[in-house]
Amino acid sequence: MPPPPVLDELDGFSLWDGEHERGPVRIGWSGDRIGAVSPAADRHPGLAVIPGLIDTHVHLDTNVVDGAGPGDAWPLVTPPEEQAIHVLGHALRFAAGGVTTLRDLAASSVQIAVGRALDEGAVCGPRLLAFGPVGMTAGHGDLFTPPRFRDRPPVADSPDECRALVRAWAREGAAGIKIYTSGGVLSMGDHVRWRNHTRAEIAATVDEAHALGMLVAAHSHTAEGIEIALAEGADSIEHATGMTAGQFDRLVAGQVPVAPTLLINDILAAGEGGVRPEAQQKAAAIVAGRAELLRAAGAAGVRFVLGTDANGRFVRHGGQLLELRRMREVLGWSAERTLVSATSDAAAAIGMGDLIGRVAPGFAPDLVIVRGRPWLDLDELTAERIVAVICRGRLVSGRIPPDES
Questions:
Q1: 54 to each of 76, 159, 350, how far by Cα in Å?
Q2: Where in 236-340 does DSSP place strands (E)?
Q3: Residue 201, CA distances (Å) to 123, 168, 395 in order
Q4: What is the spatial distance between Cα 323 and Cα 352, in angstroms, rounded to a whole number?
Q5: Could you tell me the pTM of the whole model?
Q6: Cα four-point dihedral sign 164, 353, 116, 99
Q7: What are the pLDDT digits (tens) for 250-279?
Q8: DSSP label of 286
Q9: What is the bridge-based pairing of β-strands 99-105 and 53-58?
Q10: Of residues 405, 351, 391, 295, the one with CA closest to residue 43
Q11: Which of 23, 118, 356, 370 has the fewest CB atoms within 10 Å, measured from its CB?
Q12: Facing residues of 12 across strands?
């Protein structure tokens, strides 16, 4: 199978550049950097280019065919070499839905290796940033592994162990660190309000990660967990379903990005996808009253970015497009404001705001060709209306339509 063709320009497409509408342009690039964006004749009426979408919160540790994953035996009995093929399959399928950068929160050496291979060009596909988890024995991360399995992912149970695990992830090549400041929904025998790690352990983890230049993403479903994450300097809050109005000002002042992961909790609360009754009950409890609070948070200026918790089972490939419409609905945002949260602002939230998320000179040619103007009408951004996806200047899905002028 030949590699995807190397492109060097798109000519005559209307552009939304991650912040503003630019009209018809010519986008030229060399290798992995855009050289120029200049006005051009409209050669493709009805089509437009937007930056590739960025999902700041995914999990690719599942079977790409049937979604089996954490809570099942699949990741525990499948060799890492085989898992890597599934991780790559997920990445390519998400890319076909317009997502050109994925951040896996709670990855293993498998996702790190696949991300490195993608960066090296061994396979043409999206960017995959892998964050190593630092959790405790009987914490949210640990409770995805059934108790009968003795071979478990690593945990850390003291400040020194936390520092050591951060260093181990750094040596492995992880892009960042995932911590837990509350329990969770899908973990077995877990309780959302359980404490995860002591303050001293969390402080040591964040300090060590920052010393090594790594961002820290904090899972939290409780107000207390958000307080701890903010106090200890976490770089993003994941889920934040227990957010209170009293926390808005600090989140806004610190411009701390929040991934609300709306769709997956809606799915779990509705009991869809074969979710266990225990998880359904937990999800139903955390989504009660969530919409009103998050709308108020959005109005106050809390920085929400696209993060789906997609793993190919509950939120499947292309689910980012549904998540964006759900964000627009819940937060009361315009189509354009919602798209910013999935492109330029999502890029800044993961420390890559100078490389991706915008279409401008010096940025990477990660581009999506769509039918319509999704920054004006988000309902036009659907899987069926995506014409082509370009990652790192290479066509990875669809085809470039011929000149219609």
A1: 29, 33, 9
A2: 236-239, 258-259
A3: 38, 16, 45
A4: 22
A5: 0.97
A6: positive
A7: 999 999 999 999 999 999 999 998 899 999
A8: H
A9: parallel
A10: 405
A11: 23
A12: none
